[in-house]
Amino acid sequence: MTASYNDTLARPPRVTTGAAGWARENLFGTWCDALLTVICGTALALGLWFGLGWVLGDAEWSVISALGGRFVIGKYNTVAACAGQDCFWRPQAGLIMVAALLGMAWGIAGGGTARVAAIVLAVAASAFAFLPYSLNEMGLDVRLLLLACAPATAIGWAVATYTPLGTPLRLAILSVAAFVLTLVLLRGLSGVPGLQPVSVNDWGGLMLNLILAVIGITLCLPIGIALALGRRSGLPVVKVICIVFIEVFRGVPLITLLFMSQTLVPLAFPENFPLNSLSRAAIIITLFSSAYMAENIRGGLQALHPGQAEAARALGLPGWQTTLLISLPQAIRNVIPAIVGQFISLFKDTTLVYIISMLDIVEIGRAFISSNLEFQDNPRELFVFLAIVFWIFTYSMSYVSKRVEHHLGVGQR
Amino acid sequence: MTEIREATTEPIIVCRDVHKWFGDFHALKGVTTSVGRGEKVVILGPSGSGKSTFIRTINRLEQHQRGNIVVDDIELTNDVRNIDAIRREVGMVFQSFNLFPHLTVMSNITLAPMKVRKWPRAQAEEAAIAFLERVGIPEQADKYPAELSGGQQQRVAIARALAMQPKIMLFDEPTSALDPEMIKEVLDVMRELATSGMTMIIVTHEVGFAKEVADRVIMFDEGNIVEEAPPNDFFNNPQHERAQMFLSQILD
Fold first, then answer.
1. Hey, is the C-beta of B134 within 8 angstroms of any chain A C-beta?
2. Which residues lie closer than 8 Å to A115 by C-beta, 6 or more apart?
3. Are strands A359-360 and B74-75 parallel, antiparallel or unpaired?
4. Over the stretch A332-364, which tens digit does the pLDDT of each residue have?
């Protein structure tokens, strides 16, 4: 008797069997479900039929290959920008540094998302080296520097694995150093042969979007945290300043802020301060996102049980340590989806710098189409391509955030 | 009527005419009492009577607005140094445990000794293991709070408070959020602590525990002490009619 009881009841009962059973259960359960299934299925099939038909048949993808490297660096390597010399190696050096840093991250993490990211970048860069352009259109030096990303990844991995540089803190410091070095390389140094200055007005393409996004994302989180804490502070002056800042930057459209940046940001700096359009845009995008970030963080802080801070205070921890060690880590973890949402939104918002005549990846494509009659019928191809590029970046961010959440979720429920 | 019994030894906590308002609500109406070194005081009373508020004023989780409180010869004022000094000497255990969910059991316990007492990690961890052994769960050190049962969480909370080596322990309804079968394991730890000579103030509804462990039972009602006596007198011969009513309700 006991044996048969165990055999029949120890496992959960199976309700459906096979694909047909699953479909009957989930797709055609009631006449309403069945109707919805038929309507949605038809729409999906039609969409796929015409969509794929266009992608594989009618679409003229030559506009993408004609733009080529300009998607990546805009007008950076043109004769006007670079005084007739070849400057393509400078952004490429930046890419190689990114590959090496990702390799280091892989070495430190020992696998996981860092390994995926490092391998994807190395493989993609190597693949781009074999694009079927002629050597005139895409020189041997450009291809070799692209191929250098793979060994750079390997060197980064080895450095992190076998030298004392392989700690997260040192990687963070190196990353900041590499970013600054990249900016200096791109900008050039007057008087140094081979590093003739390139005006930031000639920076463009995906490079410009990424530079603005990296600055914005690294700075808006700490500034947002400071604003959130300030808004909850007991000091009335600090509190009022933070509230005014947040409400002003949240209340004005980013486009308006970017317009105003041309006239207002210089007022905050001494006269003749060398402030170019790129730094103005970076400042505005950072501050705009900080205001939203502050409210995300504040939401996370408010969701905490007051007993958490009480327990920390009862143990004798001073207020700032309670905030730093108990409240903030929990608050930030609780609002990771909102934080990453803000990062994604910031990355997409970098396209708005066309307002202050900067040629980001979208604007360079749009400008190209409107100035080349042969491609004026191909905006669809261009924008589908741009959508895919943006989706790849934003989905990567979303994927990393999912991994981070999963990693931090240990012990949470 | 109410017999104010002086603590048998030198007092470590002295409260004189302590008042507390929440907005217009007068939560504490001039509480005066003292607690001796090593004394175990159990506080009873209906909900809303101010008993939790009272023990929370002792480590300044609630600020009293009139009267004075002196803990271990330090007066509680707005001076942050005094508040921090008192909190270092006063451990607290909460009804809802309030363990830090993002830290392991070990980190929960070592955090304050390392940050406040500036102990090196090795010393703090060694002490933490000793306290976990004392509360009976040394094998749970590397788990996160959410992986433990309620009774285990509360025992970790007790170990966390003890790790600061306090002179006084405050218990704010430590077993009220626990399933019946877990109450005993927490009370056992508290019994053991009581025999070690710790000064303890315990807000609880566990009458059996009060009879067994308390040197003195205090009953709160409507923001003040209505009865204060050794457990024998308190439970067998209550003087105040509020205390008689309360006891007849909870002793049924």
1. no
2. A106, A109
3. unpaired
4. 998 999 999 999 999 999 999 999 889 999 999
Best CA proximity match to B41, nearest among B171, B194, B201: B201
Report the C-alpha dihedral over residues A42, A43, A48, A51, rounded to 10 degrees.
Answer: 140
Helix (H) or strand (E) holding B93: strand B90-93
What pLDDT sits at residue A8? 56
Contact B112 A330 (CB under 8 A): no
Beta bridge partners of B21: B26
Q: How far apart are CA B127 and CA B144, in angstroms?
A: 19
Q: State the best of A308, A310, A315, A405 to mutate against chain B, taking most chain B CBs within 10 Å.
A: A315
Please state, in angstroms and rounded to a whole number, the distance separating the CA atoms of residues B170 and B161: 9
Per DSSP bridges, beta strands B216-221 and B224-229 are antiparallel
Q: Which of B121, B96, B116, B232 is nearest to B171 (CA)?
A: B96
Structure tokens at B89: 């000497």
| pLDDT over threshold 50, residue A178 | yes
Write the pLDDT tens digit of every residue in A22-73: 888 888 888 898 899 999 999 999 999 998 888 888 888 888 888 888 899 9
As for the ipTM of the complex, it is 0.91
Q: What percent of chain B has pLDDT over 90?
A: 83
Cβ distance B146 to B138 under 8 Å?
Answer: no
